[in-house]
Amino acid sequence: MVFDIDCMCTFDVLECWEDVRRIEKYEDKFGSLVFQKLFERSPPLKLLFGFPIDVDPTSPSVQKSPRFTTHARFLTSMLDRTVNVLGPDIDLLAEILSASAKKHIRFGLEVEHFAYMSDVFIESLSELLGDRFTSMRRDSWQTVLDEIRTEMVKSMNLEKAVFASWSKVKEIPNYREVAGSKLFHSMFLKCPDSKVPFGIPLDADPDSPTVRNSLAFRVHSVRFVDMLDRALTMMEAKHLSEEMIRLGAKHGKMGVTPSMFQSLCEALLQTLGEILPEHAWDEDTREAWFLMFSKLSTQMIKAMP
Question: Where would one find the signal peptide in this protein (predicted)?
Fold first, then answer.
């Protein structure tokens, strides 16, 4: 991920956010303003966050409700984490925005909801800071928020592409056996050394019925599909990284090496391209799967010797 933000712009945003943080109970005040303005602009959003569509977002009963304050504080903390890593750690920023995108998908937010997010954030900052929110600061925030929105929308679209295509895979009769056998066959052809960790002799022919019908081949191919399914289910979970590291350590002991993951990735993409309907597999979906697999495999490789 490359952010097109210069140093002065970053400095303006950081300095401005420090002014916000000096405000008493800024977590509540900023988040409340944002949600109030969001609900006013798009009343259906109230339903996504657990409020009746006819509720008045400015009423004390709403503003003081535990649900509203929880959402308000979470939004402020999310922006706080994002601002804190603007300069020093772009990779960490990418992870934060990706995680945020997943949460927004879970809530049911759509890409079009981001069209007015920048305006709402800037209006809230202006209301909180008054004259301290100068035109220069406004321009800097606009630049940063536009970049954040672009990255989050991209992440949301990638996540949706992976989930939608995987749902299509699971509609295939015996998809675990179909996908798993194709994937392992392809991987063994691309990387013969990968046969050994899964109990297949190095000189065995992946096309032979002896290999394709062996217990080791059938068990491991299905297990991989089950593992992938669990990983996709956990994409929004807090402990996904720990689970991938655990799996990495386990497969490292089996003899799987980091160099084998490239062949596995190629085999996965080839398999998906072969078993999915043509309308469900395009370049964008392929890129989404590549990025998803790269993220998961990187975490697994960390635990390997």
Answer: none
